[in-house]
Amino acid sequence: MAPLAATRRPAQQWLALTPPLPLTDTLTVYRIPTAAFAGLEHHLDALLTPTEQQRTARYAHYADQLRFRVGRAGLRYLLGQRLGLPPAAVPLCLSRFGKPQLAEPACVHFNVAHSGEWVLIALAAREIGIDVEVQAPELDFASVAAYRFSTTEQQLLAQSAQPQATFYQIWTQMEARTKATGTGLSEATTSAATGWTVRSFGVAPGYSAALAYPIDWQPVIQFRSLDARLFI
Fold first, then answer.
1. Cβ distance 14 to 207 under 8 Å?
2. Alpha carbon distance 69, 8 (integer Å)
3. Of the four, 20, 101, 202, 221, which is 20 to 30 A from 14 by CA?
4. Burial of 42 (0-12, 13-18, 19+ CB in 10 A)
5. Is 183 helix (H, G, I), strand (E, B) or coil?
6. Section 205-219 average pLDDT
7. Half-sphere exposure of 26 (CA within 13 A, CB side)
8. Directed axis angle between helix 50-58 and helix 62-83, to 10°?
9. CB neighbours of 51 closer than 8 A, spacing ≥ 6?
10. What gap in Å lies between CA 153 and CA 82, rounded to an integer?
């Protein structure tokens, strides 16, 4: 895994959605603003299966319902483009660790993350993990770090001039790697895992995000904004 660092990155450039490129050597990250879909729930539900619609209704809060709708509908829309299928017909299932995946072996791997007002979807030819977190000023991140971070990570945090930003950079990198392996949060307690390149990137002010992909792969990484008008 690439070493963790507390360095600033240039503002991420998010481009308009273009026709999908071959995934052989390309990793594409899509950014979707959930607020753009408020009031369009019936359009989103049309892209979901009955089971997914029922799952949506189980969320107690509207914001959580909307995030799930946007994330799953966006995923089905993008996978449908790749597979030549209607969104609701894309055959999704869960791995034994609960990670969503295609039911049949395919050349498309994906991962979804959401926090606050944003949903991120990553598509690639190989396993991929992605995470995004809205930075919460009230979070006692030092206590969380003491429990979840390795000694090296805690030292990096202690030496940082921007400890909150550093905490979220480490956290999202850890979560992205864990989601790439698909083995559960217990695997994310240390940065010692090898085999993954982990990269931080910008989503919007007040957010931290990272993605992870196999260390022996050097994809062209693209960042795209997904317009709500594609769903209606």
1. no
2. 33
3. 101
4. exposed
5. coil
6. 95
7. 10
8. 160
9. none
10. 39
Helix ranges restricted to H, 103-216: 141-148, 151-159, 163-181
End-to-end Cα separation, the chain, in angstroms: 41
Beta carbons within 8 Å of 48's beta carbon, 6+ residues apart: 56, 69, 72, 73, 76, 88
What is the rounded distance in angstroms from the CA atom of residue 164 to the CA atom of residue 51? 39
Q: Count of H helices and E strands in the chain?
A: 6, 10
What is the CB-side half-sphere exposure of residue 81 using CA atoms within 13 A?
Answer: 15
Q: What is the pLDDT of residues 128-178, one digit of tens each?
A: 999 999 999 889 988 999 889 989 999 999 999 999 999 999 999 999 999
Name 32's bridge partners.
Answer: 119
- Residue that the structure tokens 């029922």 belong to: 54
Helix (H, G, I), strand (E, B) or coil at 214: strand
Please indicate, yes or no, whether the overall pTM of this predicted structure exceeds 0.85: yes
What are the tokens at 162? Answer: 């921007």
Question: Tokens 């050097």 appear where?
Answer: 218
In this structure, the chain runs to a length of: 232
Question: CA 211, CA 200: separation in Å to the nearest integer?
Answer: 7
